[in-house]
Structure formats: structure tokens, C-alpha cells
Amino acid sequence: MKKFNLNSARKIFALWIFLFACICGAAAQSSIKVHKQILTPQQVFVGFSSCKLQCNFYSAADFFSIASQEKIENNVLKLDLTGPQFKGLEEKCTILNAVLKQDKFEGSEYSLEIDFIPWQAGSLVFPPFDLISLIRDEQDSDSTKCIIALKPVKISSILEKYNETTLKPPVSPIEIPGTSYAVWTFIVALILLLVIICAVLAKLPKITRKIAQMKSRVAFKKNEKNTTKKLNSILKKKITDADFGEQWQKIMRNYLNSRFGFDFSTVPSSRIAKVISNVTGDMLDEKEESVVMSICAMFVRTDYIRFAQGSIDSKLLPSNEHKAEFAKGERKEIIKRSIALIHYLDNPASMEEEL
């Protein structure tokens, strides 16, 4: 019987321990084989903001079962990019988003999609990373790892494509023919418009006064026309002298109301001239005052005809001066003179002979 060798036993035991560790390490870490990798678009240039890298692979593992349900929406699992898996790529690219999709019909087929913006031309190499670490919220050093390795991605340069070595200087905006003339025409028109507006604003008080005067003239003309029509109408009526005098005063008082903007319906005939002077602020000239006094004289005359009939004064001699009735043709003369007087008040520039 052979003698037992202790050193040989120790070597055999160490070999078994090493083999067991290798088997356990292989079981704790597995590699995922990508069977299809697609880059969209096929030719990617530096600075493209819509680059997508899609990798399809098969795996018996249920990645969705170990993920938080808050990350899953419509069978799409959003991956965590805050870990160190993609550190070191900041200068070459910016990873915007990464998701994992599972085929609805083929449950063992997955699709990894990464959206990124490339910043450097050449070969972009994504380092191998653990897919489990992008899915789980908390990492466990003893947990199983699924390493996935992506193929390098070629990033092109626009300068290389068009055989340019330097950037071209900026080109000035293209000018449409005739644009400069239109612009200058607009500027000149705008300046003229501003000048006109300033001139109008400077003369605005004067323009306002002119407009007010025009409105007054139109109103005076209308008042004169209506009064003239009414005066001529009472001349055709067969009425007594007292009624004639009453209607004449009513028409003339209405005229004075509109002409001076004051109610003369209750003003005594002897005070009409004084009230007109107060209303106008004593601004009437000598001719206008003469016209007003003539109108007041006719008010006094028609008052006498209206109220002196049968009185002692109407019986004084000579009878033709004190009789309370109009002389022959006096009605017509009063109407004619009244029309001439109101025409002069509304048109001061008219000839004095109209009076």
C-alpha cells in the first residue's frame, strides 16, 4: 500500500477550490450577444440631435420583473443613466435617453434603444456595461450581471463629406431685387407721416376752433332758415294784430334761444338787449348792438299791439301813433326787417344795406 502524501492532497484540494470559484463566477456573470444593431440615420454627422442606436438580443431573463413599476409604461422600460456605466463619453457624445423594449409576441427578444448626440467625428465606442445595473434602483455586488457590448458607431463629419477643411465665412442675407427701394420709400413715407402728424398736433387748437366755428355756422344757418320760413308763414295767415304780435314774438324768442344758447321765453322785452349783452360777455361790436336794439324795438312794438288794446294810451292823440293796431303794410315791414336782422347776426360780413 502506497504511503499517503499530504502535499499532493493539499494541491488537489486547492485545484478543486479554484475550479469551484471559476464555475461560480461564470454563473454570476453572463454576456448578452447582440444579434442585430441598427443606427438611425445610417450616416450620422457631428451635432445630429436625432441619432438612435437600436440593439436587438435574446435573453431568457425577465428584466421587467426586477424593475420598478414606475419605470415601465406601455411595455417600455426606462433605464437609469445616472450611474457610472457611460462615464467618460461626455466629450464624445451626450446620451439623452435609453429604454428597453420587450417583443409582445416573442417574450425572449428585447430591444435596447439609445438616443444620443455625437460631438466628435470618428469611431464612437460604447464601453461594455451591465444591463442589470441600469434597471435596478439599488445595486448588489453579489447579484448576477448581464454584460452587453455594443459595436462601434461611425460618426461622420460634414466637412469631410464635402471635402472642406475649413468653415466658410458667413454669407450676407440674400436681398430681393427692389427691396432697398421699397424700404427707403417706406422710410420716407413714415417721415412724411410723422411730419404731418406733428404739424396737425401743433395746429390742433386752431383746427379745433375752426371745426367749432364751422359747426356754429351750420347751426346758425339752419336756425336762420327755419326762422325765415316761419316768419313768412304767419304773414299769410288771416289773424288779428294781437295774435300776429304773439306769434312773431314766439318765433323770434325761439330763434334767440338757439342763436345765443339761452332761454328767452320768460325774459321781458325791455330786458332782452341786456340779457344778450351778458350772454355774449359784451363782445358785440357796434353794428351787432344796433341790430339787437332794432330787434328789441320790434319786441316793444308787438307788446304794445298785444296788450294796449282798449287802454287809455291807445286813445291818445294823434290816433295813428297811439292806436293799438298795425298800420297798413306794417306787418310785412316787420317780417322783412326781422329776416334782414337775423341774417346780419348770422352773417356779420353781409352788407349793411340789408338792414
What would you note in describing this structure?
With 355 residues, this protein is an alpha+beta fold. Helix content is 45%, strand content 17%. It is built from 10 helices and 12 strands. The protein has a 6-stranded antiparallel beta sheet, with no helix packed on it. A 3-stranded mixed beta sheet has the order 1-11-10. A 3-stranded mixed beta sheet has the order 3-12-9. A hairpin with a 6-residue loop joins strand 7 (93-102) and strand 8. The chain is rod-shaped and about 150 Å long. It starts with 5 loop residues before the first helix and ends in a 9-residue tail after the last helix.
* Biggest pleated-sheet summary: 6 strands, antiparallel
Beta content: 15-25%
Q: How many β strands by DSSP? A: 12
Structural class: alpha+beta
Rg over C-alpha atoms, rounded to the nearest angstrom: 57 Å
Tally the helices. 10
Task: Give the mean pLDDT.
Answer: 81
Give me the strand/helix succession. HEEEEEEEEEEHEEHHHHHHHH
Which percent range fits the helix content?
Answer: 40-55%
